[in-house]
Design goal:
Number of strands: 0
Order of helices and strands: HH
Oligomer: single chain
Distance between the termini: 17 Å
Number of helices: 2
Largest sheet: none
Number of domains: 1
């Protein structure tokens, strides 16, 4: 659930969005 606010904040930062996406993938693995 912590990823939700992060994704909202990442809307202004494309780079941050990619970082969060990578982190989510790593967490899934």
């Amino acid at each position: 659930m912590q990823s939700m606010p992060r994704l909202k904040h990442a809307c202004s930062d494309p780079n941050y969005n990619s970082n969060v996406f990578t982190t989510m993938l790593n967490s899934a693995l």
